[in-house]
Amino acid sequence: MSYLFNPANYDLSDPASIPNLLIQHLTIVGIAMLISILIAIPLGILAARYKWLYPPVISIAGVMYTIPALALIAFLVPVTGLTIATIIIPLILYAQIALIRNTAAAINGIDPLLIEVGRAMGMNGRQLLQRVTLPMALPVTIAGIRIAMVTTIGIASLASLAGTDSLGTLIFQGISNLQSDQVIAGAILISLLAIVADLLLLALQVGLNRYYNLSLTHPTGIYSILLITSSSALLPLCSQS
Residue 165 sits in which domain range? Predict the structure, then answer.
């Protein structure tokens, strides 16, 4: 534990200091999660809309998730070199299964009555997606993002094997130098980062659940969604008048 509380390890001028490694770790996770979400959310929507597409998409994502991280990194090194892309690509692949599955489940779990009400109000497919489907699917989708985020934070610790520093560098350096304090410090920091990220996303998920109140046992929740939807649909008419 002495490594974690040594002020010298927080020197910002040192690229291998804890703050700089934390920034590197967050950068890797942020890039990977952003790209993962941009890929997985549309795939989840398509898989929910076209039922025949769900099995192959989930199967492919599941197969990618089973590939060992070390093997995938070793395979990518001759292709992408010792660059950040070598760790970003595996992180994107591993995040797909949780994101796609939860997105599809969220959309399939929406009350069909609300979709019919939206259509009765004259909404087209795009408007339904933007004003009803995606907002109501957010809580369950966030649950998938939580799983993907924790997984990504953990696997990002292998970035040093791909030539990129992260908090995992502390672990590998500690093993090489036989410094158990450094190994423990790296493990603690990665664990704390995963816990904090999960708690923040959990708070967001709980807040969204309360806001939309999706449970059918709470009719007021459905009425509030209909009110929001109605207001969104009538807004263009009000602006014209």
Answer: 7-112+133-214
